[in-house]
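This section describes the prediction task in plain terms. A model, or a person checking by hand, is given the sequence of a single protein chain and must write out its three-dimensional structure as a string of tokens. No templates, partner chains or ligands are provided. The sample shown here is typical of the held-out split.
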Amino acid sequence: MCAALVSVAVLAVATSGWAVLRHYDGKVGHVNLSFSDAAARPDSAGGGTQNILLVGSDTRAGTEGEFGQTEGQRSDTTILAHLDSDGSTTLVSFPRDLWVEIPAYADSDGTEHGPQKSKLNAAFAYGGPSLLIRTIETLTNIRIDHYLQIDFVGFQAMTDALGGVTVCVKELPPELKSRGLDNLNDRYSGWHGQVGDNTLDGTQALAFVRQRYGLPEGDIDRIRRQQQFLGVVFRSIASTGTLLNPGKLIDVVDAATSALTLDENTSLADLRLLAVRMQGISSGGVAFETIPATPSTVGEQSVLLASPEELGALLNRLGGSVPQSAGATALVPAGSVAPAHLAVPAGSAPAGAVPAGAVVPANQTSRERAVSARSVQTQGQPVQAQDAPAQGAPAEGVGCTY
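The expected answer:
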């Protein structure tokens, strides 16, 4: 995801014209999108506004087992880039554990599946980019105009081509450490760091942005790390040390585009507006948002439930809206029981799919957009998350993170 953004932005500043994009178009992969319910998709915003879905895939292909073995792939990072016609740019992060409705789809064997509720990253596992796009559109009522995807290998190579990236990590308060939380060591992602500045190569950077366990707010803290990383990367690109080094610029672009996948109707030239807008990330010209959600459980799985009021307020600013019909809503009503036709058979779905008859506990009260503390459930223990940054803060405001 970061490399996807970097590749088009670097091309904007590294060349005197866009003709060179034809060369790099030959390096990127393309995926065909297919929508069985194409007539149900939202209308395009038009008027110069673009909505681009940026996805970091957790496929292990080409990693030689470095990150473990798993079949298929899931959307490890999902960001909606909203390029408004008024000149504003907003990057909206979607937590992978967000509880959503996945629309009806046909799998690779042609078997038809009805709508079901599950974690967001399950949509990519079930039906790839097409189903992920429709899931996001169902949740937001925002039409996705373009699709970009980057994998682990491209992310690492891009970071190494930059010569490494320096990020900042805050120290956990004693009360969080006493509960077993550890933001400096994670055996799952492979992250090992220190309080303060950490200069990371590609492997370490990937571990940093992938840590979930041991962080006070899990998925939400991981998103904050990714937002910090994006800001640092673009500040690095905008520095004279990078801009005045053509060889380094080309290495970054080569690394990113070689692992980039676009939809079949999108070329790098179509991403000119994204490239131009992203150059403002280091000066605060790009706002970061995260889908407002509260930790809860469905069955025995930890999930994030979106707050209808806060979600509606955010989507309204982006030209979208919360689902209107009960059948389309991605939110689970408090105390509801998952009906059998929406349940996923045992053993057939990623973790997080609701079992038939499971009672969904009542959601917690909606939080304010800027919070200084809240109680969350982490690894079975309630903890207090301190100093959470305000949502919508510009990149330059995303400093040290847990």
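For orientation: DSSP finds eleven helices and 19 strands in the chain.
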